[in-house]
Amino acid sequence: MLSGLSFSAIALLMAVGVLLDLWWGEVRRWHPLVGFGNWAIVLERRLNQGSLRFARGMLAWMLAVLPLTALAALLIWALALPAAQAAVHALMLYFCLGLRSLRDHNLPIADALSQNDLPNARLLTARIVSRDTTSASEIELTKASAESLLENGNDAVFGTLFWFIIAGGPGAVLFRMANTLDAMWGYRTPRLLQFGCAAARIDDALNYIPARLTALSYVLLAPGLQGKRRAWQCWRAQAPMWDSPNAGPVMSSGAGALGVQLGGAAVYHGEVEHRPTLGNGPLATGADIGRAWQLVARTTALWLALASTVAVLLEITHA
């Protein structure tokens, strides 16, 4: 392990980090990722101008991510007590996870839709997605929320856990910062097309394996053999048609596991974007948001169980 931790310690600290996230949720004030986002805004304003926008974007990415990743690694190295190092690893993971945040931001949308409160559902959905929700219907709001849950299950939970396994707390920090920069700079707008290209490509690389492990997890947790077959077939047939090499497998397998239809047209920045269909089945409705959350929650439990099982087997092997 690049973190210097045994796999048993990694498995234990993964569980601790997830439990802290579910217990405390997001830090209301002075959240490290909020501060990082503000720093990213400053860098983009200063460097995204003139010529050589791609090179400037790469420089901005390095200035944003590398010093803080190095600082995280240095902090752990400087601590003398193994218990203190373990605590910092767990806290770094906690700050990088967003499992409870996914629940807290999406289930209220399902509640609003169940009460036919479209204005509130539109307002809540607009807080988590970049698409226009001003006149969105229940089906459109459901698609936005369910797609966000499935994709961000990978970005905010499983990708973070994967890089925590590889490199401990600093690995989780590196991944979440890279993913945050992709979310901020990766839009294909005239201003960000070249500048954000480096952030988008780096995030694609870091997310390549986690996204496919997430997609495989969604397949395994689909109900029944028919559901698993459907999720697998949706992944293989629909993912190649999606622009994002990582969002495609995650969302197509997730929609297939739920047995609903997602994707399709959505309004971004005032323009209708015609996206491929995801999944197979009836159009998703408000109740399916809760089912998408349950899929993400069960996938988290699966990952923790697998990590614990591997840790026990390794201990037995080396006993």
UniProtKB/TrEMBL annotation:
InterPro entries: Cobalamin_biosynth_CobD/CbiB. Its main location: membrane. Belongs to the CobD/CbiB family. One of its GO terms (cellular component) is plasma membrane. Keywords: Cell membrane, Cobalamin biosynthesis, Membrane, Transmembrane, Transmembrane helix. Converts cobyric acid to cobinamide by the addition of aminopropanol on the F carboxylic group. It is found in: Cell membrane. It comes from the Bacteria. GO terms for biological process: cobalamin biosynthetic process. HAMAP family: CobD_CbiB (MF_00024). It is a multi-pass membrane protein. The chain crosses the membrane at residues 6-24, 59-84, 156-175. GO terms for molecular function: ABC-type vitamin B12 transporter activity; threonine-phosphate decarboxylase activity. The keyword Iron-sulfur does not apply. Pathway: Cofactor biosynthesis; adenosylcobalamin biosynthesis. It comes from Duganella rivi. This is Cobalamin biosynthesis protein CobD.
